[in-house]
């Protein structure tokens, strides 16, 4: 019986689709599948509404009444459709849809659909590209507006089109743009309680303004502000990670990177090389920028722990209440906000390697006590843990602060001081390194030439004077910064005072402004004499020490003393 029905359906030259009571397709004839452009298998068992979204078939079945000669758009085609309920024994058991192309549109189908597709694509583009776009004619009447703008304004396309722009958009200036013919780009505009950024452009035909186009560039300034804020935070984070990465990648500093010209520096390097091989703690003292971290790296690299991690903790930079978690780590659930799975502390991470405690003088007292326990017992216990973990670490500590004074003031534990101070390396500031700083400057210039592709050959006599007179509070870091700037300004040849930062020059002018003459020889001699006297005073007349301090040979010092007729109390120091 069913076979006969389907054979019968094939003889009908119209598209036929039969659905069951639920609206699921049970039969479709060949003409139907061809008109719909879908294979029979793609249609059977699918809800009719998923094939023809606007279909009123369900309603037809519910009401038991046919809907006849309805025109519907199906993709690019237009169909004329009859829908009938199938009634058996007074009961609706399904529905039948009979359809054909709207008579007369068959031949036009392609041309018409292409135009429509283009228009459709254009509309989609306008919707997607712009948060809001509106166009009006020369009288200010809206001729086009997209859905996003309408949603934003609380209106619809149908309501807006044909009305004057001022009736639809508050604070608009589109009518002004039509009058002046001048574009207004990226203007702030308030609509309701929101601030938006808009651009308005006149539409021209030759010289004549025939309308205007407005577009919303940013539909919510709050969003823009939060984007800018997020961007700023990301920039800062990126900066931080860049520095950290530089620190990690650059962690391979060795003794080859350390420049040492002055005898005190040479001694420090010798000492550091010797103690690198031991497992003992090291305390490095020195002012800011004297190379404490560089020495710590070099000791680690030279030691038999160089394969292990070099972990730096900057005690001055970590907030007090975070320091314990940072150093000791914690177990999962140790406190609110503790990370899942817990987190190892820096001490644990330095296992088998070196723990560099920078700025140890800034470590809070309670943390000092806990650190001392780790050093004595060689065990570390995470916050919230029940068992300690044994660790094998080598500690290098550094500070620019006077630890002995801090001990007297009760700010640093004496027992920890002795634990750390198995070996002590003291790095001299530049201002006591005398003439040798000029050799350091030359060394730095060579290094910078290689890094910055410059070709600077050295420093002029005037720059030497400036360098020797400057106290270099930032030590080698400061000198490196000064030279980095200078070699880039000069590019080649020798560095002259104009390549130096103004603060170095200002000092020079101030220093000599009271009694300076233009006799270079005489001025240099005067300065040399002053420096010699200062060095002798600092060494309480000891010539050997003074020569060392100035970085010159003893014989040279004697010659200079004679030249300047400087008498030294020989009876005390020989
Ligand atoms: N003797 C040296 N030879 C070559 N470069 C040096 C020397 N001393 C310091 N520097 C360079 O100077 C800069 C500062 O060095 P470092 O960070 O080791 O100093 P620091 O004493 O740890 O400073 P701070 O106490 O301010 O942290 C680094 O770029 C380092 O490479």
Explain how this protein is built.
It is a single chain. With 574 residues, this protein is of the alpha/beta class. The chain folds into five domains: 108 residues, Beta-Lactamase; 89 residues, PAS domain (Beta-Lactamase, 2-Layer Sandwich), CATH 3.30.450; 173 residues, P-loop containing nucleotide triphosphate hydrolases (Rossmann fold), CATH 3.40.50.300; 74 residues, Helicase, Ruva Protein, domain 3 (Orthogonal Bundle); 58 residues, Arc Repressor Mutant, subunit A, CATH 1.10.10.60. The protein contains 26 helices and 21 strands. A hairpin with a 4-residue loop joins strand 6 and strand 7. Helix 19 crosses helix 21, helix 23 packs across helix 24 and helix 24 packs across helix 25. The termini are far apart. It binds adenosine-5'-triphosphate (ATP).
How do the helices and strands line up, and which of them pair or pack?
Layout: H1 2-10, E1 15-20, E2 25-28, H2 30-36, H3 40-43, H4 48-51, H5 57-63, E3 67-74, E4 77-88, E5 91-101, H6 109-129, E6 132-137, E7 142-145, H7 147-153, H8 157-160, H9 165-168, H10 174-180, E8 184-191, E9 194-205, E10 208-218, H11 221-249, H12 263-276, E11 282-286, H13 292-302, E12 310-314, H14 320-328, E13 329-330, E14 343-344, H15 346-349, E15 354-358, H16 365-377, E16 379-380, E17 389-390, E18 394-399, H17 403-408, H18 414-420, E19 423-427, H19 436-452, E20 455-459, H20 461-469, H21 475-490, E21 492-495, H22 502-512, H23 520-538, H24 543-550, H25 554-563, H26 570-573
Parallel strand pairs: 11-18, 11-19, 12-15, 15-18, 20-21
Antiparallel strand pairs: 1-2, 1-5, 3-4, 4-5, 6-7, 6-10, 8-9, 9-10, 13-14, 16-17
Helix pairs in contact: 12-13, 19-21, 23-24, 24-25
The structure holds adenosine-5'-triphosphate.
Adenosine-5'-triphosphate binds next to helix 13 and helix 21.
């Amino acid at each position: 019986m069913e076979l006969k029905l389907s054979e019968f359906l094939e003889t009908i030259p119209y598209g036929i689709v039969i659905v069951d009571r639920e609206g699921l397709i049970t039969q479709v004839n060949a003409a139907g599948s061809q008109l719909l452009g879908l294979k029979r298998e793609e249609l059977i068992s699918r809800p009719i509404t998923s094939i023809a979204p606007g279909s009123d078939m369900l309603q037809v079945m519910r009401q038991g009444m046919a809907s006849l000669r309805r025109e519907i758009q199906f993709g690019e085609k237009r169909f004329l459709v009859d829908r009938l309920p199938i009634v058996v024994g007074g009961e609706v058991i399904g529905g039948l849809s009979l359809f054909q192309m709207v008579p007369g549109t068959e031949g036009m189908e392609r041309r018409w659909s292409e135009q429509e597709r283009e228009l459709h694509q254009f509309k989609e583009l306008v919707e997607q590209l712009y948060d809001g776009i509106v166009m009006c004619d020369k009288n200010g009447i809206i001729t086009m507006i997209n859905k996003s703008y309408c949603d934003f304004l609380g209106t619809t396309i149908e309501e807006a089109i044909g009305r004057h722009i001022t009736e639809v958009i508050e604070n608009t200036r589109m009518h002004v743009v039509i009058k002046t013919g001048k574009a207004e780009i990226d203007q702030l505009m308030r609509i309701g309680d929101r601030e938006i950024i808009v651009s308005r452009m006149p539409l021209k035909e030759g010289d004549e303004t025939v309308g205007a186009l407005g577009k919303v560039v940013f539909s919510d300034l709050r969003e823009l502000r939060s984007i800018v804020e997020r961007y700023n935070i990301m920039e800062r984070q990126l900066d931080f990670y860049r520095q950290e990465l530089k620190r990690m990648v650059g962690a391979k500093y060795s003794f080859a990177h350390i420049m040492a010209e002055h005898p005190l520096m040479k001694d420090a390097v010798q000492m550091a090389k010797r103690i690198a091989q031991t497992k003992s703690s090291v305390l490095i003292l020195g002012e800011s920028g004297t190379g404490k971290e560089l020495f710590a790296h070099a000791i680690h690299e030279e030691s038999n722990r160089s394969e292990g991690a070099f972990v730096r903790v900057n005690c001055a930079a970590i907030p007090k209440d975070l320091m314990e978690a940072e150093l000791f780590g914690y177990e999962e659930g140790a406190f609110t906000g503790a990370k899942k799975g817990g987190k190892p502390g820096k001490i644990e991470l330095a296992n088998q390697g070196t723990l560099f405690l920078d700025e140890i003088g800034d470590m809070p007292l309670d943390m000092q006590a806990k650190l001392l326990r780790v050093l004595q017992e060689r065990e570390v216990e995470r916050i919230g843990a029940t068992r300690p973990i044994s660790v094998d670490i080598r500690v290098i500590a550094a500070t620019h602060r006077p630890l002995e004074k801090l001990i007297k003031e009760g700010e640093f534990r004496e027992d920890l001081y002795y634990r750390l101070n198995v070996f002590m390396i003291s790095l001299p500031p530049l201002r006591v390194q005398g003439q040798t700083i000029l050799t350091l400057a030359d060394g730095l210039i060579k290094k910078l030439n290689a890094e910055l592709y410059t070709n600077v050959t050295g420093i002029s006599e005037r720059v030497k004077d400036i360098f020797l007179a400057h106290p270099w509070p930032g030590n080698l870091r400061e000198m490196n910064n000064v030279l980095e700037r200078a070699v880039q300004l000069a590019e080649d040849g020798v560095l002259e005072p104009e390549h130096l930062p103004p603060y170095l020059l200002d000092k020079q002018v101030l220093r000599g402004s009271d009694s300076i003459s233009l006799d270079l020889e005489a001025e240099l001699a005067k300065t040399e004499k002053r420096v010699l006297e200062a060095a002798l005073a600092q060494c309480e007349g000891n010539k050997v020490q003074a020569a060392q301090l100035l970085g010159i040979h003893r014989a040279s010092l004697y010659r200079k003393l004679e030249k300047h007729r400087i008498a030294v109390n020989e009876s005390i120091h020989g």
